[in-house]
């Protein structure tokens, strides 16, 4: 069967009433958590991981995909109406979007964000369907050394490229790798870092770590700054766009998609860089340069399209290589594991129906989001009135439930608390969370590939450099690490240009504290 | 001094109007309290900067001596009771809304607490229909 046939099959599977219901729940939930600052799609998917015990894989992934895309839509609403980015990927949207809203053009800003997200999400998903199978066919032919190199590349890229501080990224990464080490060594059977506790010999479940870091850490952080002056929200009616807005928006949508998708698809992932690039491009190309900084519609349309296209892009390495490059993809990957599905290049061969159903549901979810969000925007804005104590009490309850459901052992609850405190400390000291989660997920797999590669080469380290793909990836990695250094030496003044404001909302939170 | 429990809705506005009328009549000062628990990202009853300007303009026109405070992270009823403590605080003006029994059960009402607990006279007003 070719890809198109599979895609049609996927649509058939995704369009059953039950699965459509899961898609609707997913997009509603996703938009809701996207709207609320601090609660993101990654936390939501982590909290919902226990449903994987009694819901079919396709239904669960349809829902997760809805949450993933919904979070992007919701984030823009908060950015525009509140000037507080709901998600880190909508930081740029807030710049022009909030100015537009203040100038009485909130309806148009929301409309261009929603329609732009739809356009970019749809194109991104088409590209995903076109590229991911091909990449996975290529990836199956790779041996352990190449696969090891690609995973190391993802680790280095996520740690060193995203985020303002490489040092903080590295600290977070090694914390994650350290957590990944716990358990019985799969080759020699020796217990590692189990502190004599038999419950730890199976390793620490990723679900517990993800729920603790995302949900408990965030809840504790919010509890530490519970009472704050309420933000000023701009009242809005139903989003709509005039003819002029359409004319000014469609090119930024397409350019934003072109920026977002490749950046998402690279193992370095992240929506921050492409949204930033899209913004400065639109600013340069715009016929209404004077409006920038005062509420230019291009400055909303481009970055919003870029962040949704990059969300679609991050699914390329996840589905074709089993490499997560953003937090939500990382948590979705753990859902694969809990279904006993081994994520990796063989996914398209072994689980074609599931993967194509997931891709089909992305198209459906995107359409649902557009249909739901245009008329519902005022209601989403009302969600921001929910008192935080109710919200976080619920989150903590589901976090504890989820952690306990993994193995039904009390030790997991203790671990949940310990890692929750770790999550609080990471937020307090501005450590990014993503490298930790990626470290926990990829650490053990990297170790396995490394030892496999070394065994095949009879313990000879040069065996790691026998495949051309591996060598190319190592060269790229070296370039990635050295490039900022070289740039800094060449143009001392331009170094500020490369700062990506990844943990900007963390810093903002710290400033408000 | 007359204390007005203000919220950014028709009830708060009614309380403000009656407070102004009463203060003019008695020739005394006005203290307006608009508090928020500060536990939600947005509080619709908390006056935003534009509205605060409008209130200040309105009061300046009446040539009344007034004080407007917007405490954050406090209980609304506690804050008003505290404002009524000084000896010169003579009257509390609040807006009250109609609530059915279920609504009373679900949502703690500030006015339901203030009416019996405030030791000084309380003027409970409703917006005009």
Describe what this molecule looks like in 3D:
The complex is a heterodimer of chains A (513) and B (129). Chain A is mainly alpha-helical and 513 residues long. Chain A is 72% helix and 1% strand. Chain A has helices at residues 3-14, 17-35, 41-48, 57-82, 91-140, 144-160, 166-181, 206-224, 243-265, 272-285, 298-321, 327-338, 347-350, 352-382, 388-407, 410-428, 434-456, 468-490, 504-512; strands spanning 183-184, 191-192. In chain A, helix 2 packs across helix 14 (352-382) and helix 15 (388-407) packs across helix 16. The longest helix of chain A is centred in the first third of the chain and has 50 residues, at 91-140. The N and C termini of chain B lie far apart (28 Å). The longest helix of chain B has 17 residues, at 10-26. In chain B, 40% of the residues lie in helices and 16% in strands. Chain B is of the alpha/beta class and 129 residues long. Chain B has a single domain (2-125), classed as HUPs (Rossmann fold), CATH 3.40.50. In chain B, helix 1 (10-26) links the parallel strand 1 (2-5) and strand 2. Chain A binds chain B through residues 36-37, 82, 84, 226-233, 381, 384-389, and chain B through 36-44, 46, 48-49, 72-73.
Topology:
The complex is a heterodimer of chains A (513) and B (129).
Chain A: H1 3-14, H2 17-35, H3 41-48, H4 57-82, H5 91-140, H6 144-160, H7 166-181, E1 183-184, E2 191-192, H8 206-224, H9 243-265, H10 272-285, H11 298-321, H12 327-338, H13 347-350, H14 352-382, H15 388-407, H16 410-428, H17 434-456, H18 468-490, H19 504-512
Antiparallel strand pairs in A: 1-2
Helix pairs in contact in A: 1-14, 2-4, 2-14, 3-4, 3-8, 3-12, 4-5, 4-11, 4-12, 4-14, 5-9, 5-11, 5-14, 6-7, 6-17, 6-18, 7-17, 8-15, 8-16, 9-10, 9-11, 10-11, 12-17, 15-16
Chain B: E1 2-5, H1 10-26, E2 30-33, H2 49-61, E3 66-69, H3 76-83, E4 91-95, H4 101-106, H5 110-117, E5 122-125
Parallel strand pairs in B: 1-2, 1-4, 2-3, 4-5
């Amino acid at each position: 069967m070719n890809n198109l046939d599979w895609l049609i099959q996927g649509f058939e599977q995704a369009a059953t009433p039950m699965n459509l219901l899961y898609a609707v729940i997913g997009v509603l939930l996703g938009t809701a958590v996207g709207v609320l600052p601090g609660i993101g799609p990654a936390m939501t998917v982590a909290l919902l991981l226990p449903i994987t015990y009694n819901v079919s894989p396709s239904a669960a992934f349809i829902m997760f995909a809805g949450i993933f895309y919904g979070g992007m839509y919701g984030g823009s609403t908060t950015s525009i109406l509140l000037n507080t980015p709901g998600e880190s990927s909508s930081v740029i949207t807030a710049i022009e979007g909030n100015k537009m809203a203040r100038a009485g053009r909130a309806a148009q800003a929301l409309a261009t964000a929603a329609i732009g997200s739809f356009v970019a999400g749809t194109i991104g998903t088409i590209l995903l369907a076109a590229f991911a199978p091909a990449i996975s066919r290529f990836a199956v032919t790779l041996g352990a050394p190449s696969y090891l190199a690609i995973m190391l590349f993802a680790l280095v890229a996520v740690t060193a490229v995203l985020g303002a501080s490489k040092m903080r990224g590295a600290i977070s990464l090694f914390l994650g790798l350290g957590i990944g080490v716990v358990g019985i060594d799969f080759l020699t059977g020796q217990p590692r870092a189990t502190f004599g506790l038999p419950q730890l010999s199976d390793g620490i479940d990723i679900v517990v770590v993800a729920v603790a870091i995302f949900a408990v850490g965030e809840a504790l952080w919010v509890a530490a700054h519970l009472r704050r002056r309420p933000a000023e929200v701009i009242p809005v009616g139903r989003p709509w766009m005039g003819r002029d807005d359409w004319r000014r928006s469609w090119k930024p949508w397409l350019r934003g998609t072109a920026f977002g998708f490749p950046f998402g698809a690279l193992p370095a992932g992240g929506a921050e860089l492409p949204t930033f690039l899209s913004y400065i491009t639109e600013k340069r190309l715009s016929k209404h340069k004077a409006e920038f900084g005062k509420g230019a519609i291009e400055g909303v349309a481009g970055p919003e399209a870029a962040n949704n296209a990059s969300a679609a892009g991050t699914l390329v390495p996840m589905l074709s290589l089993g490499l997560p490059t953003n937090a939500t993809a990382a948590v979705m990957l753990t859902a694969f594991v809990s279904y006993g599905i081994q994520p990796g290049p063989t996914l398209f061969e072994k689980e074609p129906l599931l993967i194509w159903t997931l891709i089909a549901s992305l198209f459906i979810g995107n359409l649902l989001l557009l249909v739901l969000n245009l008329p519902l925007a005022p209601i989403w804005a009302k969600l921001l009135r929910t008192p935080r104590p109710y919200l976080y009490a619920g989150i903590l309850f589901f976090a504890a439930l989820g952690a306990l459901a993994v193995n039904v052992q009390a030790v997991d609850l203790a671990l949940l608390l310990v890692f929750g405190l770790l999550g609080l400390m990471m937020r307090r000291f501005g450590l990014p969370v993503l490298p930790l989660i990626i470290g926990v997920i990829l650490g053990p797999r990297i170790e396995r590939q490394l030892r496999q590669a070394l065994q095949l080469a009879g313990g000879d380290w040069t065996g790691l450099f026998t495949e051309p793909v591996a060598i190319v990836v190592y060269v790229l990695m070296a370039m990635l690490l050295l490039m900022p250094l070289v740039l800094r030496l060449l143009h001392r003044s331009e170094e500020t240009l490369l700062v990506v404001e990844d943990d900007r909302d963390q810093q903002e939170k710290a400033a408000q504290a | 001094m007359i204390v007005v429990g203000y919220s950014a809705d028709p009830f708060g506005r009614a309380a403000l109007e009656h407070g102004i009328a009463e203060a003019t009549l008695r020739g005394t000062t006005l203290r307006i309290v608009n508090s928020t628990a500060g536990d939600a990202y947005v509080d619709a009853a908390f006056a935003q900067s534009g509205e605060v300007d409008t209130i200040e303009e309105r009061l300046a026109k009446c040539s009344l001596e007034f004080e407007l405070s917007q405490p954050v992270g406090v209980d609304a009823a506690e804050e008003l009771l505290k404002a009524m403590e000084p000896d010169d605080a003579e009257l509390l003006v609040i807006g009250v809304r109609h609530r059915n029994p279920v609504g009373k059960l679900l949502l703690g009402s500030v006015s339901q607490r203030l009416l019996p607990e405030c030791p000084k006279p309380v003027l409970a007003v409703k917006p005009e229909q």
